[in-house]
Here is the input.
Amino acid sequence: MTDMDVKTAIRNGDADTLRQLLSDDSSRANELIRWDNKKCLTHPLHFISDMLFNGTLQKGKELPLVRGLVEDVDDFRVTNPPSNPTLLDALAADFSGHRYDLRHIIRAMLNSRTYQLSAEPTESGRADALNYSHYFMRRLTAEEMLDTISEVTGIQEKFRGFPPGTRAMQVYSAQPGGSYMLSAFGRPNRETICERDPMPDIVQTLHLISGDTINKKVADWKPDPALDDAQQLNRIFLSSLSRYPSEPERQRIEADLKTKEPRSVFQDLLWAVLNSKEFMFNH
Here is the structure.
């Protein structure tokens, strides 16, 4: 077997010949992918796509739905089968059928009933951690949390070396623009190839309670002069929690507004909301 034989088989889309060529030496599959990854992606070679395409889908599946069809997400062994192989195969076929368009497959997942299920489980599905009977709550990533805090308060974060208005999601340098929050909440520094660390710790808690990220933005926050107190209250809840305040919450804030300066009341509310579990978790 020569490299020219392999290249010719790929160019002709001859999967049977390529299987035969690779059967003598399994290490040649890695050579094939290194030789021309683009050709591998654009030919329907299913014996490669089973790992390559499904692996890509698995990463995409894990992000919006928290748990992948295979756990751990990179552990595609015969002894670790997917929880729903039919669904994984259907997603892989849809992915390849749309020329490996990641936006298409992510859009399909986000529009699915599975993704849109409530995080509140039914009595029979309370212990389910495998079959997507309810949405699994996920804490916002470092970038999501920082961008949302900036959006709610209206105070943009400044990243060293990046123009004004840059969002945390757009910061790509090895050091995350000098943002302590991104580092504290597990964003990889990209100096090495590694997964982000999603585990909570006391450093994160202390930073949210008394660190600069929330406290400086809350201190700089100013109410919109075009809104009355009730409208301002609704804006804070809608922008942070995507809901209107409950009646008890509204009554508590209205009581404080009668005895305290409105800006101070709303600043206290912002601090409390931004430190709440309801804000920090996608549910």
User: Anything to note?
Assistant: Residues 3-110 form one domain. The radius of gyration is 25 Å.
